[in-house]
Amino acid sequence: MKLKELNRIFYKARTNAAQWNRWARKEPQNRVQRKWIRNEQRQKIGHEIVGPISEPVVCELFSKKHRWFDQYVTSDTVEIEYQNSHRPVSTEEGVVEAGFSSVEVDKLLKKAEEWQDSL
Questions:
Q1: What are residue 4's phi and psi, to 5 degrees?
Q2: How far apart are CA 53 and CA 32, in angstroms?
Q3: Is the pLDDT of residue 72 over 60?
Q4: What is the Cα–Cα distance from 74 to 76, expressed in whole angstroms?
Q5: 3-state secondary structure the chain
Q6: Residues 14/62, Cβ–Cβ less than 8 Å
Q7: I want to staple 71 with a disulfide (CB 3.0 to 4.6 A). Which of 17, 32, 60, 64 is the partner?
Q8: Exposure b/e, 44-70, CB count within 10 A at least 16 = b
Q9: What domain count does the chain have?
Q10: What is the pLDDT of residues 32-52, one digit of tens each?
C-alpha cells in the first residue's frame, strides 16, 4: 500500500511539473486568469482580467530543472517498481528483486506526504 500511495503522489508531482512548464512558457503579462464576457446568445464577445495565476508548486523530491527553465520528473523507479509489484509471475524464480527497500520507501513516502500537505 505504501508503494501505491507513493506512486499516486508521483503522478501528482508529474502533473504539477507539467503545469509549471506551461506556466513558465508564458510571458509574465499573460499569466492571468480571464473571465469571458458573453452576449444574450451566449457567444464570447470579450474578457476581463480577474487576477494573476500563481506559480504552481513543484515537488523537489521528484523534479529537476533541465536546460533553462523546464521542470521534469525523474524518479521513474517508483513507477517501475509499482508496475512490477502488480505483474504476475508463474514461478518464484520469475520474481524481480525490488529496486529499493521498505525503509527507503518509508523515507520517500514521508517526504512526499510532507510535500503534498504543503499544497
A1: -65, -45
A2: 5
A3: no
A4: 6
A5: CHHHHHHHHHHHHHHHHHHHHHHHHCCHHHCEEEEEEECCCCCEEEEEEEEECCCCCCCCCCEEEECCCEEEECCHHHHHHHHHHCCCCCCHHHCCCCCCCHHHHHHHHHHHHHHHHCC
A6: yes
A7: 17
A8: eeeeeeeeeeeebebbebbbeeeeeee
A9: 1
A10: 999 999 999 999 999 999 999
| Type of residue at 34 | R
| Contact between residue 105 and residue 10 where contact means Cβ atoms under 8 Å apart | no
Asked whether residue 100 is assigned to any structural domain, the reply reads yes
Owner of C-alpha cell 502533473: 15
Q: Is residue 37 part of a domain?
A: no
CA angle 44, 45, 51 (to 5 degrees): 85
7-19 per-position pLDDT tens digit: 888 888 888 888 9
Asked if 69 and 24 count as a contact pair (C-beta separation under 8 A), the reply is yes
User: How much is the CA Rg of the chain, to the nearest whole Å?
Assistant: 20
The pTM of the full predicted model, rounded to 2 decimals, is: 0.69
Q: Which amino acid is at 84?
A: N
Domain assignment present for residue 44? The answer is no
